[in-house]
Structure of Glutamate 5-kinase:
Amino acid sequence: MATRAGAKEKELRREILAAVKRVVIKIGSGVISDHESGRTALERGLSQKRIRSYARRIKHITDLGVEVIVVSSGAIMAGRQRLNLVRSTLDIPEKQACAAIGQSFLMRTYENFFDKQGLKVAQILLGHDDLEHRKRFLNIKHTMEALLERGVIPIVNENDSVTVDEIKIGDNDTLSANVACMAGAQLLIILSDVDGLYNGDPARVPKNAADAPQLISHVDRITPDIEQLAGKSRNPLSVGGMYTKVLAAKKTMSFGIPTLVVNGLDGKILDRIFAGAAVGTLFWSGKTKIRDRKHWIAHTLKPAGTLTVDAGACRAIVERGKSLLPAGVVTVEGKFEFGASVRIVSDGSEIARGLVNYSSADLERIKGMKTSAIRNLVGTAFYEEVVHRDDLVIVSS
């Protein structure tokens, strides 16, 4: 972790940019809201000026031969503006109504300004089910590929008009990380309303004070300490804050994709990034990416239950790359069916995730049992492994 960008890091950023052929740019609600209106955050609405500016900047990026996918927040914000709903709290039907009217207004605004730059755009609305089901996941991936091959910029948002909290992806930082991994991008840029990750809370100390927190220029590993530094957003338009950006970066880093968190209120920030300026916070470890399917298991599927395993099973999984056998399962939590995603826990810490070959009810019957006894008990439904190593991903640090 570094607080200032040195010569070595600047060279690292140049190497990353040289390899970029496809970039995902996440634009937050706070970035494209109208900060010049003098209104409160909930009253601002969509800024035509900012979207026009980003259309120009993205055109410059495409002129460099880089394919661009945009993940844009702002539908609910735009809907608030159209429906004049400026209360701090909205119930679920009101949020969904705002999303329904706001999404069309948001896309019309993007289409208008991108068209003036000679760029075509396409709307893609996603829910968690679209990412969780492998066939739908691949269909979305193929659609994006077809659009990019034809020079069309996909503009992605969560389908907020029909999703509720239980089935939401949750925030567009997470969505942008999933999209970057799905699309095989070489860089994720998250445009926020702050400069990046600081080593303290910059809101509590004057910027010019001697003990003012410093911007962290490079994070090469996301530790619990780094996660603690990331606070919740103070912007009522935002869902996650810096914490969700750090978690998004954690996902992309595991897949071999660097993430930059920068201040999108700087209208020239994209120009500065592609000119090689050391702006914002770079999250990048340089680790080799894991296979697409295993990334999907580890970071896209929502676990339906938890399996606690004994010390022997933990060593076999983590140290020797073995499958999880029934004999190593101590407790089963949750209700799930064959093929569900589960957390695998040892001594209170999550060590892996995987897809189970048994339902929770069957696992309750066979946990702790030897293979020969299980074969006699379950007959034709027998699987030697609870989770096969091909369906298992180590997630412990």
Observations:
- DSSP finds 14 helices and 13 strands in the chain.
- The chain has a mean pLDDT of 86.
- Residues 26 and 72 are 6 Å apart (CA to CA).
- The radius of gyration is 23 Å.
